[in-house]
Design a protein that fits this description.
Blueprint: H1 3-16, H2 18-55, E1 60-65, H3 94-101, E2 108-122, E3 127-136, H4 140-143, E4 148-151, H5 156-160, E5 165-168, H6 170-176, E6 186-189, E7 192-200, E8 215-218, H7 219-227, E9 234-239, H8 245-259, E10 270-274, H9 275-318, H10 320-328, H11 333-362, H12 378-402, H13 406-411
Parallel strand pairs: 3-8, 5-7
Antiparallel strand pairs: 1-9, 1-10, 2-3, 2-6, 2-9, 4-7, 5-8, 6-7
Amino acid sequence: MSLFEILRSAMRGVTANKLRSVLTLLGVTIGVGSVILLLAVGNGSAQTVQNAITSLGTNTLTVRANQAGGGGGAGGGGAAATTTASTSVRTITTKVSDQLAASGLGHVKEVVPQASTSLTVSSTSVSSTGISIIGTTAGYFDVSTAKVASGSAFTTADVTTSAKVAVIGSELATTLFPTSSALGQSISVAGTPFSVVGVLATQSSSGFTDPNTVVIAPITRIQKSYTGYGAVSSLTVEATSSDAVTAAQGEVTVMLNQLLGVTDIANEPFTVTNQSTLLATAAASATSFTVLLGAVAAISLLVGGIGVTNVMLVTVTERTREIGIRKALGATRGAILGQFLAEAATLTLLGGVLGVIGAVIGSQWQINGTQPVILGYSIPLALGVSVAIGVFFGVYPAARAASMRPIQALRAI
């Protein structure tokens, strides 16, 4: 019996009972579609995290005080800024930032301090609560992803004079001034008026702070009006290049220990975060997450395979007389085995193709806020596994059919 005849016979067997075949196809379709789509969700989630980290800058470092090291930007007053290194061991201030920038580190290009808080921001008709307020220097717009789309950023002179000027996020600008441009308008930040000199370009939202609803102002003004002159929230350090980040991290760590009078490096009051390290960690976590999702989806594919076994066993039972007649006419054991294996493989292959189509269509929509990104290898892998499952789970029913003796098969009905 030729391969073509085996396949033609298999197709006749599959279409003999359409409803049963469709239900079997459905189980395999759901299994294959789930594998591809869940792997795509995991991959999409991984890319979102990686893009968020990369957007922070592959050539930047972030310095934050440890919990025991003095905390965020609120409070402290002017006295904290004038304390000596020996009495401010746990505090990273703007003075420390200036000293770090002026220390001439070979792999450091710029040091930008940030003092952050959360306040209510209002226009003449609209008020928004819990808005992130970032006090920083003019260099912030060079080292961060925050780029001014209209208007201009504030200047070093504005920082020196503690000017009441601000650059605001695009979404906040639309919220506060829905019918007109925000440029040149006045906003109130917890009762203090600021003139809007720039509006940021829209950015993708990641992390706990929406970059499209922030207010960025000179750090001197934010400290004077809200946070005081104590510890800043963080420092962003720009390395001379992406290849110099690791060297810059070492230089910054050593210099901060000197500036803060730290002698026990095991208990440093700050943490220097390398974005490249974060990226590697996120990639490893995302891989584990994707594998987990794939394993969960594979269970449904396994269930579909068990359904194939059930259907093929029923098919063999129903076609016992046919098997007996074919054997009596000279059909070999291999021909019978091949026919039923081909039927099982055809069922799972058709189900796999439908599952791929469903997964590709499903990936066009976001799932729980994540845009699925189909992995190139997942489609041939899922199709191959679906056919392999059909063959694997079809072996027992096919072997049972092939082992029947003609006389017993003819007597069955």
